[in-house]
Amino acid sequence: MNAAHLHIILVHLPIVLLPTATILLAFGLLGRQGAVVSVALWLFVGASLCAIPAYLIGEDAAEMVEEIPGISEDTIEEHEEAADIAFWLTIFVGATAASSIVLRTRVPRLTHTALKALVAAGAIASSTLAYTAYEGGKIRHPEAYDTTASSKHESEGEQDND
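Given the sequence above, the corresponding structure tokens read:
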């Protein structure tokens, strides 16, 4: 297993965990379900912890991939720029969640306000992660982004049926 493979594996964890935690936190707050809120907070922390190695390995993965013919350095750069923003937002959300875990029983009113804000921050961070994943997919998955290729394939299939 190399850096590119590890990067691809690790990036999927925050992409799934962060929006899941955001949705759980919103439902936990609405339903006043402390256990659901706790699970959401721990998922935020887990997402941010998974983001750290994914982000750090990203540069090594980029160096490996940019040697492959047909890979655009501009596409890699766009992915890296999006990743910078997504990473720091994810870390912020994870740190806020960790603080909320610690302060939850000590300062309930402040923590409740922070949790409401955390739902919004989680949604924003989730959006940036989704955009970063979109940009990352462009690096090695042109079939997912080239609409002319799918149109051409569909028209070739229609010709075969004649």
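The mean pLDDT is 85. Try to locate this feature in the token string yourself.
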